[in-house]
C-alpha cells in the first residue's frame, strides 16, 4: 500500500460526509462569535514559534517547566498585542494542550479571592491578581489528606493581641502537597487551614491569603518551606510545578482571612457562614468546568478526531475487489468502540455548556444570599464530574488501543492527552467519594417523596426527576409501540433503572453491597443526562437546524442507546427491558438493543469524519501523527521519527562502553575470536 | 496524624495476617527451589549500584536506553561471577522492572532460530546466540501492518542463480517498525517477509535470518536503513530501542531461510510446511508467557502489593474511638476494587504456570511432528492473552486510582508499571483480533457437537468443555442446594453462560451484533478459567496445605464470584441466575451474589497484607514510595521529592527570563511600580 493511499482515503471519507463542518463548529463552540474567536486564537498560537510542539517529545521535565513559563510569558505579550480580553486569555490557556502553572491562578486563586476575599484584600490585591502582577496558587490538599477537607491538619490560630493569624504545619503529613504552581512559580497563595479561635476552639477549615515568595527576588519568605513534589506518573503534567509547603508559625494580618462568608472579629469571635457548603462553591465551579473539558478531551484524543481519522486511513485484513485491505473503521469491533465515544464528546460538550450557564445562575443568586440552588448544583456537579472524567479516561485508552501498536507511540498523541487528563479522576473530589454524595442526595429525595411524602412528583428537581417513574402504572415499555429508534424509549429506561435502583438501595439502606454506591450513582447520573440529552435533541432544529440536525439526532440517540447498554445489567436484573416480557428462554433479550446500536453505527459511519471535523481542531492542536487532517499518517510518523535524539548518530553512545564488551565476551565464549 | 502511624498500621496489619508468607511465596514461585533462587537473584541485583533506581525518575530517554545497556552488560558479568544458568539470567531480566533490549533476543530471536533454523544456521550461529556474541531482534510488524501477518509487504525473492534471497522493502509502509532492540542495539535479526519463488509465485510470509550491523564497528550494513522509532506513550518502554528497518535489495544466502518447517530447494522449488499454524508457535509461546507475567504485574502494582499496602496505612474520613481516621482499605468502595484484583493475580500466576507446562508438552510433541495440540493451544493462549492483558491494564489503573491523588505521583510506582505494561493489549496479537479467533474456535466446536454431531460430550477439549452444559437437563442451579460459598456454583454458571452465548451466537451467525466477538470470547475464556480455578482449588491441600490452603480457597472463590459478577449482564439475560426463578418483581436477583462478594472480601480483609507479602516483592522490586514494606509511605514521598532536579535551586532557572518580566508587567498595569 502506498502511503498516499492514506490521503486518498481521507479525501474520500471527507467527500462522503454530508454535514457542513462549520455549522457543527458553530454549534459546538456555542455561537457565531465563539467559534471564529477560537479559530483566530488558535491561528495566532499555532503560528508562533514559542508554541511550536515539534521537539517537546524529547524534553526533560525541567525543560517542560521552562517551556511552560516561556509560553505563559508569551501569552501575555500576545494579549497586549492583540488586545485579548481575560476570557480570551483563559481560552488561549485552554487551547494550549500543556497544563501551565498559570491555570491555577485562573481557575482557583483568582475566583476564590474575588468571591470570598475581604474588601481590604480585594482593594490591595484585586488589580494585581487581575493583571498577574502576582501569581497565585490554591493550597488545599495535604500530604496526608485529600478529598476529606474536614480532616486537614494545617492550622490558622487567631492571635487577638496582634490581630494576626498564625499559619502552622504541625506534622509532616500536614505539608500542603500537589499544589499547582506552588513548587517554583507562585508568589502568593490561598491556604485552607483549620481556624483555631483564641478560646482554643477549632471551627474547621477556612481560607487564608498568604504571600509565599518575595516580589524582589522570588526567594521564599521566612518560615515557609516550599519545593516541587517531583515528576508525575507517565510524564503527565510535566509543565506544572506541583509543590509542597510547610508553614512554621507564619503570621498574616487578620484581613488575610477570606471572610466573605465567615470571619473573625478583631477580638476573636467567630462569625458563622450563612450556608455550610458555601465555601465549597470554588471546587464546585472547577468540577462544573470539568464536564465540558472532559467532552473536549474525548473529542480530541478519542472517539473523536485522532482515533477516527487513523481508523479511516488505516487498512488491515482481507483485500477487497479494489485490491486494498479493509479500512479499519469499518470493522464492527472498531466502530462499536469509537462512534459511541464520539457521541459522548458531543453530549458532554453541550452538557458542560448548559452546566456553565446553570452555574452562573447559581452564582448570581448566591451573591444575593440565595442558597436555594446550592444543594442541587452540588449533587449534579458531583455526579457529572465522576461520570465524565471516568468516561473520558476510559475512552482515551479505548482510542489508544483502537489504533493498534502505533497507539503506543508518543507521536500518536493520545498517550500525552491521557497522562495529562488522568488526575481528573482523583482531583477535585475522588470519583468514588463523589459517588457517595450522589447516593446521599438520591436517598434524601426518595425519602422525601416516598417515605415522608414531604415532596410531590411535581416538586422534583432536574437531578431527581427520574423518581417520577415510581408513580407510573405500567411496569414496562412496550417495545412495539416505541422501539429503539425513538429516544424516548432509552430515556424512560434510564429513569426507570435509576428509580428501581434507588428504591432497592433504600430497602437495603442498612446493608448495601460494596459496589452499590458506584452503581447507584451512575444510574442516577445517567438518568439525569438522559433527560438532558432529550432536551438537547428537541432543541436541535433551533440550535443547528437543517440536515445537520438530523445527523446529530442520530449521534444523540447513539449516546442514549449505549448508555442503556452500559447499564444493562441493572435494567435486565430489574426486568425493565421491553423484550423481557415476551422473550423465549435461552434467547438474549438485549439483542434488539445491540442490533439497533449496530445499525445506528453503520448509518453514522459515513458521517464520522465530518463529525470529527465538526470539533474544529487543527493539526497544531492535535499534535498527532496519526490524526493528521489530511490523513497522511505514515509519512508523518516517519518524519517525526527522524527527530529522535537517538538517531543523531549511527552508532549509539554506549556502544564502546556496553555493547561491544558484551559482544566480545559472547564471541570469546562461543570460541569465535573473529567472525 | 504523625507519619510513623503508617509504620504502626503496617505492623499491626502484618500481625493480623494468619498466613505464613514463605509458604505462599514457595507456592506462587512454584517450589522449594524456585523461590530461594528468585530471592537470591533479587538480593544480588538490588545490592548492585548499576541496578539502583533512585535517580531513574529524572533521566531522559537517551539516558534510560544507556542505563538499559549498562544493566545488560552488568547482568552478564553477574552471570559469570555467580555461574548463573541461562534460565537464571532470563529470570534476572524479568526481575529488572525496566524492559531491556536483550529481552527480544531471549524471548523471540533465540527461540525462533533454535526451533526453526536450518542445521547450517544453528551450526554457524547457535553458540554465538546462546552466548550473546551476537544480539538479535525479531522483525515482524511493519509501519502499515500489525497483527495481520498475511498482509506484510516485505519480500524475500529467491534468486536460483546465486542461491540467495533478496530482501526488499518496496514501500514506506513496508518498513519494519516497532522492532525491539533494532533501533540501535541488535547485530542480527529474523525478518518476516513474503517468500517470492522464481516463478513469481508469492507463498506468503516466512522467516529469514539477516545480519544488520557490522561486528567490527556496529555500523549498519549496506542496503539497510535502521533507526529508532522515537519515544513511546507515557514514557513507557524507555530503555528499549524499538526500531525501524528498510531493506534495499539485500542479499542473504539460501541457508538463512529458517527452514525447519518450510524451505526452498536450490533450484527454487517450495517445500510445504507440515502444518499451517506451525510458524506461529513462536508468537503463541510469547502469548503463553504473557499470562504469568500479567499475573505478576497485577501482583506488583495492583490489587496487590502497592495499592493494598498504601490503602492499609492511608487514613481518611471519620475519626474512630482511637482518634484516628479510618484506614482506607476498610472502605467497601476500596476493598471491592483491590481484593478481586489480588485474587486475579493469584489466579493468573497459577494459570500461567500451568500454561507453561502445557506449552512445553505441545512443543515436545511438535518436535516429533505431532500437531494435534496446536489448535487447542492456539485457542487457549489467544483467549487467555486477551483476558489477562485486558484485566491487568484495568487493574493497574484501578490500583492507581484507589490511591487517590498520590497515585498520580511518579513515586507511587504504578504509573511506570502501567506505561511499560500497556503495549501488552495490542502486541503479540491485538486483543480484539484474538477475540475473533476464540469465537471461531468456539463456533467450530459447537458445530461439531450440536450440528454435525461429529464430536461427543466426552470428546470435548478443556477449552470447549463448557459445551457440556448444553446437554444438562435442569435449566438452572438451585441456589438453596449449592449457594455462593461453593465454588461449583460459580463454575457451573460460567460454563452455562458460555454455552448459552455460543449457542445464541451460532443462531445469529450471519448477523452478530457489533460487540458480540468480544463478549462471547470473554464468556468462553471465563468458563475455561473457571474450570481451571476449580482444579487449582482442589489441589490446594496438596500444593500448599494447612491454614494457607483454606485462606487461598477464599481467594480463589473471590476470583470466581467476581468473574460471575463481571459476566452478570449475560447471565441475567439468559435467565441463568438461581434467584431469577423465584425473585419478586423490582428486586435485584444479583443481590445475594454481591453480598456474598462483600462478605468474602470482609473475611479476607485481615489477610490482605499477608497475601501481598506472599508475592515476595522487596522494596527494590516495587520501587514505590507508597508501597514500602514497612508502610512508611509519607516519609518516603518526602525523601524522594528532595531529589527532584527543580529543587536544586531556590529560585528556578527561568525566573529572570520569564517569571520576573511577567510580574513586572502585571505590577505596571496594576499601577504598582513597587509593592
UniProtKB/TrEMBL annotation, chains A, B:
- Per the record's keyword annotation, is Flavoprotein included, yes or no? yes
Locate the transmembrane regions by residue number: none
Q: Where does FAD bind?
A: 141, 180
- Cofactors that this protein relies on: FAD
User: Any idea which GO molecular function terms this record carries?
Assistant: acyl-CoA oxidase activity; FAD binding; fatty acid binding
What keywords does the record list, in alphabetical order?
FAD, Fatty acid metabolism, Flavoprotein, Lipid metabolism, Oxidoreductase, Peroxisome
Residues annotated as the enzyme's active site: 428
Checking InterPro entries in the record gives: ACOX_C_alpha1, Acyl-CoA_ox_N, Acyl-CoA_Oxase/DH_mid-dom_sf, Acyl-CoA_oxidase, Acyl-CoA_oxidase_C, AcylCo_DH-like_C, AcylCoA_DH/ox_N_sf, AcylCoA_DH/oxidase_NM_dom_sf
Q: What is its main location?
A: other
A Pfam family reported for this protein in Swiss-Prot or TrEMBL: ACOX
Q: Which GO terms describe its biological process?
A: fatty acid beta-oxidation using acyl-CoA oxidase; lipid homeostasis
Protein origin, superkingdom: Eukaryota
- Where is the protein situated, by its record's location annotation? Peroxisome
Where do the Acyl-coenzyme A oxidase N-terminal domain residues begin and end?
A: 20-135
Question: What are the residue boundaries of the Acyl-CoA oxidase C-terminal domain, all occurrences included?
Answer: 516-663
Q: Which residues form the Acyl-CoA oxidase C-alpha1 domain?
A: 280-442
GO annotation, cellular component aspect: peroxisome
Q: Which family does it belong to?
A: Belongs to the acyl-CoA oxidase family.
> Under which name does UniProt file this protein?
Acyl-coenzyme A oxidase
- The organism is Trametes cubensis
Amino acid at each position: 500500500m502506498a502511503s498516499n493511499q492514506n490521503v486518498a482515503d481521507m479525501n474520500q471519507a471527507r467527500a462522503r460526509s454530508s454535514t457542513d463542518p462549520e455549522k457543527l463548529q458553530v454549534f459546538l463552540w456555542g455561537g457565531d462569535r465563539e467559534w471564529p474567536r477560537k479559530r483566530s486564537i488558535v491561528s495566532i498560537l499555532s503560528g508562533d514559534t514559542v508554541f511550536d510542539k515539534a521537539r517537546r517529545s524529547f524534553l526533560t521535565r525541567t525543560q517542560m517547566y521552562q517551556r511552560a513559563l516561556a509560553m505563559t510569558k508569551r501569552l501575555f505579550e500576545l494579549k497586549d498585542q492583540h488586545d485579548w480580553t481575560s476570557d480570551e486569555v483563559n481560552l488561549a490557556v485552554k487551547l494550549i494542550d500543556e497544563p501551565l502553572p498559570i491555570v491555577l491562578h485562573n481557575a482557583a486563586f483568582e475566583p476564590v479571592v474575588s468571591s470570598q476575599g475581604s474588601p481590604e484584600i480585594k482593594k490591595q490585591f484585586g488589580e494585581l491578581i487581575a493583571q498577574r502582577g502576582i501569581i497565585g496558587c490554591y493550597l488545599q490538599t495535604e500530604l496526608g489528606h485529600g478529598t476529606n477537607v474536614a480532616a486537614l491538619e494545617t492550622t490558622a490560630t487567631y492571635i487577638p493581641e496582634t490581630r494576626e493569624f498564625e499559619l502552622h504545619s504541625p506534622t509532616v503529613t500536614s505539608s500542603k502537597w500537589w499544589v499547582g504552581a506552588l513548587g517554583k512559580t507562585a508568589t502568593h497563595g490561598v491556604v485552607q487551614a483549620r481556624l483555631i479561635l483564641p478560646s482554643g476552639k477549632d471551627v474547621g477549615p477556612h481560607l487564608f491569603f498568604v504571600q509565599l515568595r518575595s516580589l524582589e527576588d522570588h526567594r521564599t519568605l521566612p518560615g515557609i518551606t516550599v519545593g516541587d513534589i517531583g515528576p508525575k506518573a507517565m510524564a503527565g503534567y510535566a509543565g506544572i510545578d506541583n509543590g509542597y509547603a510547610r508553614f512554621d508559625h507564619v503570621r498574616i494580618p487578620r484581613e488575610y482571612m477570606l471572610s466573605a462568608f465567615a470571619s473573625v472579629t478583631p477580638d476573636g469571635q467567630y462569625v458563622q457562614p450563612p450556608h455550610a457548603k458555601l465555601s465549597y462553591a470554588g471546587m464546585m465551579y472547577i468540577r462544573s468546568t470539568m464536564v465540558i473539558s472532559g467532552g473536549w478531551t474525548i473529542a480530541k484524543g478519542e472517539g473523536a478526531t485522532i482515533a477516527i481519522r487513523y481508523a479511516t486511513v488505516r487498512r488491515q485484513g482481507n483485500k477487497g475487489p479494489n485490491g486494498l485491505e479493509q479500512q479499519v473503521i469499518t470493522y464492527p469491533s472498531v466502530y462499536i468502540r469509537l462512534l459511541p465515544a464520539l457521541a459522548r464528546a458531543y453530549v458532554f460538550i453541550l452538557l458542560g455548556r448548559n452546566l456553565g450557564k446553570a452555574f452562573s445562575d447559581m452564582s448570581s443568586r448566591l451573591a444575593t444570599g440565595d442558597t436555594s440552588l446550592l444543594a442541587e448544583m452540588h449533587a449534579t456537579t458531583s455526579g457529572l464530574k465522576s461520570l465524565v472524567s471516568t468516561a473520558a479516561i476510559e475512552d482515551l485508552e479505548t482510542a489508544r488501543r483502537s489504533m493498534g501498536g502505533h497507539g503506543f507511540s508518543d507521536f500518536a498523541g493520545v498517550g500525552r492527552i491521557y497522562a495529562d487528563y488522568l488526575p481528573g479522576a482523583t482531583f477535585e473530589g475522588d470519583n468514588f467519594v463523589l459517588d457517595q454524595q450522589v447516593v446521599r442526595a438520591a436517598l434524601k429525595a426518595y425519602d422525601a417523596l416516598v417515605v415522608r411524602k414531604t415532596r410531590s412528583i411535581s416538586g422534583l428537581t432536574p437531578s431527581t426527576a427520574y423518581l417520577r417513574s415510581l408513580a407510573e402504572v405500567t411496569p414496562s415499555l412496550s417495545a412495539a409501540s416505541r422501539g429503539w429508534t425513538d429516544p424516548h424509549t432509552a430515556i424512560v429506561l434510564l429513569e426507570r433503572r435509576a428509580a428501581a435502583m434507588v428504591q432497592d438501595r433504600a430497602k437495603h439502606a442498612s446493608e448495601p453491597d460494596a459496589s452499590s454506591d458506584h452503581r447507584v450513582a451512575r444510574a442516577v447520573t445517567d438518568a439525569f443526562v438522559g433527560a438532558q440529552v432529550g432536551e438537547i435533541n428537541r432543541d436541535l432544529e433551533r440550535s443547528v437546524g437543517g440536515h445537520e440536525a438530523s445527523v446529530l439526532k442520530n449521534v444523540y440517540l447513539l449516546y442514549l442507546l449505549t448508555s442503556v447498554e452500559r447499564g444493562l445489567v441493572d435494567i435486565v436484573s430489574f426486568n425493565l427491558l421491553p423484550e423481557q416480557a415476551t422473550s423465549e428462554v435461552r434467547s438474549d433479550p438485549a439483542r434488539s438493543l445491540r442490533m439497533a446500536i449496530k445499525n445506528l453505527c453503520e448509518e453514522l459511519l459515513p458521517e464520522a469524519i465530518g463529525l470529527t471535523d465538526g470539533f474544529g481542531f487543527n493539526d497544531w492542536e492535535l499534535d498527532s501523527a496519526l490524526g493528521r487532517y489530511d490523513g497522511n499518517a505514515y509519512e508523518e510518523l516517519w518524519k517525526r521519527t527522524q527527530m529522535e535524539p537517538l538517531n543523531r548518530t549511527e552508532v549509539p553512545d554506549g556502544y564502546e562502553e556496553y555493547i561491544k564488551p558484551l559482544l566480545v565476551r559472547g564471541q570469546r565464549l562461543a570460541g569465535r575470536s573473529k567472525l
